[in-house]
Every structure is written in structure tokens, then in C-alpha cells.
Design a protein that fits this description.
The structure holds 2 protein chains of 2 kinds. By secondary structure, chain A is of the alpha/beta class. Chain A has a single domain, classed as Aldolase class I (TIM Barrel, Alpha-Beta Barrel), CATH 3.20.20. Chain A is built from 11 helices and 9 strands. Chain A has a 9-stranded parallel beta sheet with strand order 5-4-3-2-1-9-8-7-6. In chain A, helix 8 (about 160-170) links the parallel strand 6 and strand 7. In chain A, helix 10 (about 220-225) crosses helix 11 (about 235-260). Chain A is globular and about 45 Å long. By secondary structure, chain B is of the alpha/beta class. In chain B, the strands form 4 sheets. In chain B, strands 3-4-14-9-10-13 form a 6-stranded mixed beta sheet, sandwiched between helices. The longest helix of chain B is centred in the first third of the chain and has 18 residues, at about 20-40. The model of chain B is unreliable at about 1-5 (pLDDT under 50). The chains are: A alpha/beta, B alpha/beta.
């Protein structure tokens, strides 16, 4: 059996010799419009992203702050649907692993079995479902576990030790640690207790660990990269793309890439 | 064998569950645990019962409506369960009192809530004042305009009302904002959800706190008439007053149970809030239930003249009761509800909430369906004072 594309990517990153964290940008599919969104996916790869998270817009994103809310609404207004997101991923034909991030309902409406098959065919490698905690729906969970998509689990600061044990069972690709309580969105500082959370999760699983929620500047990315294997940047990138277009998004990605690799600001 | 109760907590058949961000799972587990402890603690129920009696005014009466009854059919006994006579004017306080006692057990000093018509917000602000807790209520901007009086009532009791400007600016978006607040402040805050919706354990917990309605009504009807009602009718938005009155009658197979959804401008118009009649199963606000959604799984805006029914989802136990056939779910239009609002005021001197007027409207539309001596029990879930200004505006009356 060939190596999973996400595992292969981590192996390459680690083979780079010195310790090097991955940059994982998030983009809402179809934001600010489908054509720019396609260009943005290709741009983040060229500018130094190691993975990319592609958000499937949902009308009621209850774990997202204002930036992602606005971007998903704009994408829906521009006519984005689940089939169009999959088309977009197919057209982008990226060399870096694509992780789809969304809520349960759009996937359920499409049909979960069909979704994992079609997402894989379009080139996606992993799936994060924001409102699908471990154990919430064993039947659906089994369908994802049996698919070629890695099931990427979110771990929160409030995740109890019992839940952590359960969540890492069946997780693959990497673990996604939510850096703080709250919704997505840029914040001023990296939380002081992040190192403690990272250590706790590391003790529970050998999987690579990405940290996200609230990381927006190269300085924050650099600080997070000292602790984690990967740094997820969402709202700040979506903001840059929305207000400054592709050039602003490219600048931000280049700065962040330099920061997580330890040779940036 | 796998323990199905652990594998699928809080399910009603396939419906319900806990589809929430991981951040909230600890709080839901804690709430379920604290609730379980409380239900086994006689002191908990003694305190709640005393508050329901002395603070809320329970038991609420069952009122016979001779003039409305005559319209419905000769000799038909139409009864109203008078939840409108509770302190704060609706059934909502049965639940907020129960949950505030749980919040106290958990040591949480900050309370948040969502509200549509404002009745749940008022009931939450009320118990927070009574127990000296910080209270923040999320309310859609559109609903704040429709229900200005309730906004002011909440503020008078010391609550902070936060306008919600996202999405449809109604109950669904207020619930999103309350959940976002909870994800951010979960360690200090309890979310008093206002209906039998949301992730487990909320649907069963809210049902249990509301089931006092049906327990009282069943005993009152039996005592006065020596028989059970032929039909029990309640409006359904999220569905808490309906679960509250239905639960006591679920095992009485001769009793027809009817939930009335808001058909808005008509089921065919697309502008309605009839999740059970026109929705299909989906995951929304933490549970699997019937949901108004498009083919792509995007939630569709609901419409109802009644802000309290203006919600695209519905409690998961209702989804189960619909599929099982135990409860019949029907829908009446804005127009029918407004007519029933006027009729009950004129015929009986009782102004119903526009939500409850939907249940009255369904009974009026069924005239001739019942025989003499049949008892028809309507849950009058709230009073209509809050709706008077809007009804006047809609009917062109000058105030």
C-alpha cells in the first residue's frame, strides 16, 4: 500500500534535516469569488505552504468568528456549492495535500459516502469536520475511517484526558490543536498555556501536531512553530485576500513561511 | 456488545446527538452528569417545586372556553392550559428556573441565552436577577425591532441584550451567537438554551423541566371531567411547550397529540417555519433533526409572523415522534394565527401569544371534527401582550 499523501508530506518535512514546522493556510472555497479563490489556492502553494485547508462554506458556521463568517457568506452568495468546491480543488491540481474543512450538514446533504469518494477523486487528502467530535456519530465516523481521506481530529484546551485518549484513536494525518477557547479569528497574542497543551497532546499521540485559531502574524507563527509541527493560519489570510487581493495574500504567506522555517521576522 | 447509550448519547431514535465543536464537549458531559445527580436528589426537586409555586405561580389553571367551544362543535369542551398566567407570561420560566439551579450546582456565575420573541430572554433575565447572576441575551436585530417591549423588560432586570446582525437577524442567528459566546467562555458560563433543541443533554433536560405542564394538565382534566382529553394541541417552533404538554400523554394511546407548526405565508410559498412538514433530516445547532435546508445542505431562512416560531430547526424528539406516528404535525398560516388571536380575545377575553394562537387556529380550523363531550386541550403557552403592537400594525389599527 502506498504512503498516504499527508504522511508523505510530513516525512519530507522531517527529512529536511533541521527541525522545520509546516505552514498550513486556510482558504474559504469561492471567496472572494470562484476565480480568485482558484488563483489563491495555487498562489499559497507557490509561496510556501506545506498543506492547504479548503473551507466548504456553510450557512451557520457556529465555530467561526466574523472574518470566516463573512467569507463563507460571500462564497455562498457567489454560488458556491459542495460540487463546485470539489471542482475547484480538482482544477487547482495542487502538489501539496489538500484538507477539506467544513461542518457536518453540507457533507450529510451531499451524502457522506459519496463525499469522501468524490473528494478523494478531486485530489483531497484529509477531512476536518468542526462539529463532529470523536464519538458523536460512530456510524459516520466509520465511513470516514474506511475512506482514503485522513480524519483530522480537533483537540481543544477543554478536552478532558478521557476524551483525548478517545479522540486520538482513529485520528490520522495530524492532530489539530485549537490554541484557545473561542471561535476562529485573529488575536493579539499566542496563549501562555499553549506549551502545556501541546505537551499534553504529544504525550497522548505520536501524530504530528498542528496548532490553529487566532494565529495571524509572522511573529505568532514563529512562536507557535517552536512548539508545534504545523501552524494553521486562517482568518488573517482570508482578511488579506478579501481586502488586499492576491498580492496581499502572497506577501502574508511568504512572511509566514519564512517565520515557521525559522529564518523570518 | 457495545453500550448504545454510551455510543450514541441522548438519541431519540436516530435523532439528537452532540454535533458540536470539541471545545464544548467537556461542558456538555459536565452538564449531563450534574443533571443526573440533580434528578436523583430530592432536595433539588423540592427547591424547584417551591420556586415554581411561590415565584412562578404554579400550578397554572385549566380554563374552559364555552364560546370558543361552541364555535368548534356542539358540546365539545375546549380547554386552555394557562401557561400565559405564569410569572413573565409564558412557559419559558419552567425551564430557566430548572437550568439556573443546575448552573448554581456547577458554580457558573455567568448565564447566556438566545431569544426569538423575547419570552425566553425575559424568563432568563428574570431568574438571573433572582439569583444574582450575570446575564447576556443574544437577540436578532429584526426580532429586537419586532419585540422592543421585551428588550426593555430584559434590560430592566439587569440583563445585557446583544443585537445579532448576522444572517437572517432572527432566532437561528441569535443561537449561533450564543453558541460562539459559549465556546469562548465555557469555563465560566452556562448556556440556558430555551427550547428542546441543541446538543444532548439539552433536549431531554428542557423537556423534563417543561413536563410539569402536562403532568398538571393531565391530572386537572382527569379530576374535573373523569376522562382523558380526546386531543392535545400545542404549537411547535423548537418545540418546548409541546414536549412539555405531550410527555405526560405519550403513553395514553387514546389521546391524539397534535403539534402545530407555522405555515407562514403558506407551505407552498416557501416562506414558512414548518421544519417537520417541509424539512428533511440534517445537523443544526448540535443535533440531528428535521431542518429547512436546500439541496446543498445550507440552512434556509424560516418565516413566521410569530418570532418565537421563526426557526428552521425543531427539537430532535419531535422528529422521532413524527416518524413514529405518535404525534400528528400540522401547520397553520400567519393569517389563521392572526384570526385566532382576534377570536380568542373577542370570544374569551384572553389574548394569546401569536405562537400559541397557532394551536388555537388549528382547533378552529378543525371545527366539526370532534363529538359532543370530547375534551380538546390546547396549551396556551404564552400571553399576547408582547404582540399587541405588531398585530395592530399588521391589521392597520392605529394605536
Amino acid at each position: 500500500m502506498s504512503e498516504h499523501p499527508i504522511a508523505a508530506r510530513w516525512r519530507t518535512l522531517r527529512a529536511a534535516g533541521r527541525r522545520r514546522a509546516a505552514l498550513i493556510p486556510y482558504l474559504t472555497a469561492g471567496h472572494p469569488d470562484p476565480a480568485t479563490s482558484l488563483a489563491a489556492l495555487q498562489l499559497v502553494q507557490a509561496a510556501g505552504a506545506d498543506f492547504v485547508e479548503v473551507g466548504v462554506p456553510f450557512s451557520d458556521p457556529l465555530a467561526d468568528g466574523p472574518t470566516i463568517q463573512r467569507s463563507t457568506q460571500a462564497a455562498l452568495d457567489a454560488g458556491m456549492t459542495v460540487p463546485r468546491v470539489l471542482e475547484l480543488i480538482g482544477h487547482a491540481a495542487l502538489g501539496i495535500p489538500v484538507v477539506i474543512m467544513t461542518y457536518v450538514n453540507p457533507v450529510l446533504a451531499y451524502g457522506l459516502e459519496r463525499f469522501v469518494a468524490d473528494a478523494h477523486a478531486a485530489g483531497a487528502a484529509g477531512l476536518v469536520l468542526t462539529d463532529f467530535p470523536a464519538g458523536a456519530d460512530p456510524a459516520l465516523e466509520q465511513l470516514v475511517l474506511a475512506s482514503p481521506l485522513a480524519l483530522i481530529r480537533l483537540i481543544a484546551p477543554t478536552t478532558t484526558p478521557e476524551r483525548l485518549t478517545r479522540a486520538v484513536r482513529g485520528a490520522s494525518g495530524f492532530l489539530y490543536l485549537i490554541s484557545r477557547l473561542g471561535v476562529t479569528g485573529a488575536r493579539d497574542r499566542v496563549p501562555p498555556d499553549l506549551a502545556e497543551h501541546v505537551a499534553r497532546v504529544r504525550a497522548a499521540s505520536p501524530l504530528p501536531l498542528a496548532v490553529g485559531f487566532g494565529i495571524s502574524t509572522p511573529a505568532q507563527a514563529s512562536a507557535t512553530a517552536q512548539l508545534a509541527d504545523g501552524v494553521v493560519v486562517g482568518s488573517a489570510l482570508v482578511d488579506a485576500l478579501g481586502s488586499g487581493g492576491l498580492p496581499a495574500a502572497e506577501r502574508l504567506i511568504k512572511d509566514l513561511a519564512a517565520a515557521v522555517r525559522g529564518n523570518g521576522t | 456488545m457495545t453500550d448504545i447509550r454510551i455510543a450514541t448519547p441522548g438519541r431519540f431514535g436516530p435523532y439528537g446527538g452532540r454535533y458540536v465543536p470539541e471545545t464544548l464537549m467537556g461542558a456538555l458531559e459536565e452538564l449531563a452528569r450534574v443533571y443526573e445527580d440533580a434528578t436523583r436528589d430530592p432536595r433539588f426537586w423540592a427547591e424547584l417545586d417551591a420556586l415554581l409555586k411561590d415565584y412562578v405561580g404554579r400550578p397554572t389553571p385549566v380554563t374552559e372556553t364555552p364560546r370558543l367551544g361552541a364555535e368548534v362543535g356542539s358540546g365539545v369542551v375546549v380547554l386552555l392550559k394557562r401557561e400565559d398566567l405564569n410569572h413573565t407570561g409564558a412557559h419559558k420560566i419552567n425551564n430557566t428556573l430548572g437550568q439556573v439551579l443546575l448552573a448554581r450546582r456547577m458554580g457558573k456565575r455567568r448565564i447566556i441565552a438566545e431569544t426569538g420573541a423575547g419570552q425566553h430572554g425575559v424568563a432568563t433575565a428574570t431568574v438571573c436577577a433572582r439569583f444574582a447572576l450575570e446575564c447576556v441575551v443574544y437577540m436578532g436585530e429584526a426580532d429586537m425591532r419586532r419585540q422592543r417591549l421585551n428588550v426593555y423588560r430584559m434590560e430592566l432586570m439587569g440583563a445585557k441584550v446583544v443585537p445579532v446582525t448576522s444572517g437572517t437577524k432572527t432566532l437561528k442567528d441569535a443561537t449561533n451567537e450564543a453558541l460562539r459566546d459559549w465556546v469562548t467562555n465555557v469555563t465560566t458560563t452556562h448556556y440556558i438554551i430555551g427550547s428542546v433543541v441543541g446538543p444532548d443533554p439539552f433536549p431531554r433536560l428542557v423537556r423534563d423541566f417543561q413536563s410539569v405542564i402536562g403532568r398538571e394538565a393531565r391530572a386537572q382534566v382527569l379530576e374535573r371531567y373523569g376522562r382523558l382529553p380526546r386531543t392535545v394541541v400545542a404549537c411547535v417552533g423548537g418545540g418546548s411547550n409541546a414536549m412539555g404538554i405531550f410527555t405526560a400523554f405519550l403513553a395514553d394511546s387514546t389521546v391524539e397529540l397534535v403539534g402545530v407548526e407555522a405555515a407562514g405565508e403558506g407551505l407552498a410559498s416557501g416562506h414558512h417555519a414548518a421544519s417537520l412538514a417541509r424539512g428533511r433530516p440534517g445537523v443544526f445547532h448540535g443535533s440531528l433533526s428535521y431542518l429547512l435546508q436546500n439541496a446543498d445542505g445550507q440552512v434556509q431562512p424560516a418565516h413566521s409572523v410569530s418570532a418565537g416560531l421563526d426557526y428552521p430547526g425543531v427539537g430532535p424528539e419531535h422528529a422521532y415522534l413524527k416518524d413514529s406516528g405518535r404525534v400528528l404535525y400540522e401547520a397553520v398560516t400567519d393569517r389563521q394565527a392572526l384570526d385566532a388571536f382576534a377570536a380568542l380575545s373577542r370570544l374569551e377575553g384572553i389574548l394569546p401569544a401569536l405562537e400559541s394562537a397557532h394551536a388555537v387556529a388549528w382547533v378552529m380550523a378543525r371545527r366539526g371534527h370532534w363529538h359532543a363531550d370530547d375534551v380538546v386541550l390546547i396549551n396556551l403557552s404564552g400571553r399576547g401582550d408582547k404582540d399587541v403592537a405588531m398585530v395592530a400594525e399588521l391589521t392597520g389599527a392605529a394605536l
